[in-house]
Fold:
Amino acid sequence: MSTETNPTRGITGDGAAQADRVANRRVRRILFGCAAITVLTTLAIFFVLIDNAVSYFYGLRFTEALLGASLEKSVTLTEFFTGTRWAPDHATPGHGILPIVFGTLSITVGAAFVSIPIGTATAIYLSEYASEGVRSKLKPTLEILAGIPTIVYGYFAIAFINPVVLSPIAETLFGIHLGRYSMLSGMLVVGIMTIPMVSSISEDAMSSVPDELRNGAYALGATKYDVSTRIVLPASISGVLASYILAVSRALGETMAVTLAAGFNAQITANPFDEIMTMTAYMVSMARGTSAVGTIEYQSLFAVGLVLFVMTLVMNLLNDRLKRRFQEEYR
Amino acid sequence: MSTETEHDLFGDVDLKWEHAKNRLFLWVIFAASMFGVAMLALLLLDIGTDFYVGLTEFNISLTDFLTRDGSRREELSGFRGAIVASIMLMILTAVLAFFVGVGSAIYLEEYAPDNRVTRLIEANLANLAGVPSIVYGLLALAAVVNGIGTGPVLMAGAIALGLLVMSIIIVSSQEALRAVPDSVRNGSYATGATKWQTIRGVVLPAAIPGIMTGTILALARAIGETAPLLMVGAIFVNRMPSGPFDRFSGMPTQIYAWAAEPSPHFIHLAAIGIVVLLTFLFVMNGLAMYIRHRYETEI
Structure:
């Protein structure tokens, strides 16, 4: 770039303005590079998961297959998605993902039964009933729940909920001897940790419902109960649903709490006192072992990771759509 | 209550029932709100009790705990290696994520045109925030530990945590930049400053307290993350890491290793470890809040 022909040279006389503008453009490119890293991260996640998952199914990595190496099936997709035995590291291996998908889904559904009713009720209380004094104390207190690391919840499950709360109940009421782990303690602990997600996002949605709607209902003689359940909740429903989706998505990917609460036994069972294994717990169990690169156990990590990633991706896209709809309604 | 006119007006409405329903509803949702608080209290009480029992009945000395490294023998096991590893992780994570995060936020808030690429970056950011932390661990495992071939070292853990908190830092930095009023920017432009001069000289100084607050909170999230570290192989390492390219186990992974042991002595070591970890989080959150309040009034 020649400063000779640039008109700004005439103004400042020393080309400083030109240099400033070059610096501005250079900074802009660098900053764009930073923002591009976030997109590259997503692409890298996709690439790594698919590349290694392909080797789980075809015996070689995607990148190797592209180079023309011959394909040799190691695990069929049919076995993977319909098999009911998950034990890739066993002497007679089972490669059916269903038991650990069952584990993840049952924890997620169980947790939703705790976090959705309690979170929604808390949100209504905070948004419609609580005085400013109560609100200013209750809200930050609940946010502490969201800030506690998941490993601490795992400890709470294995050291308290399972042995102290659930074990006596199972023993006296059902005559079941409870082990170190149980599906129920996983559901409870993940439910508790996702309450603040539901309550705070739902409350934000409810608070942004305009007062005109409430006053209109009061003028017709409605009680606060009617206004909360028939005006505010329906009016904020897309925001409230977005909070549910977020809680579900978080429960799907939750790792440490379910690992320490629900255990490592991959099985499909209806008994909430049984030990089960989630997809994330499987990944942790492999990390604890010594699965070397290139072994089928190592590759199975990425196949499971890919399934988990796709499940949470669907939830995130759904959440994004609901959030956007809600923002359009009240802006 | 039952004057003649009211009776006519609400002839088909059982007012008593309506009011009872309203009161009942209030009690139900109040009880639900208290459930979360009760669980928090129970959790802290449980950890506090186990911490106390660990110090008294299991005779775990807090000084020994803080000055010894981990050990297979429960009575010799300590937390020093894990604490040092976590502090190193936090510093590396901060270095990796801060500049890229703040840079992205500046681009998105100040430079980015409203086009398809920008919308893609924004949508991707929302998605990244929802990716399970364990997946970041898988990424680092395949790309760094085995891809570059570093092995299960501290740097691999820091990269996983850095990518994990990057989206949090970007979003909070965007909010901090958005809070700077446009009049401030226009004042700077009027003196002939370029966009970058304006950002560096005027916008960033005003936004930095908010950015710092967001970064500290993101690091507090990172220091408690366990799953990504387990995925890169941070477990069963007891000694203190000598540098970023040494094997390691951080505070949360050490707590996990202890909590998964059947021996009650190890369980109580885990409880004491959790108290140390929560103390770190408490201090970091306090610092973030202090910065927020200290500078809030000046802008």
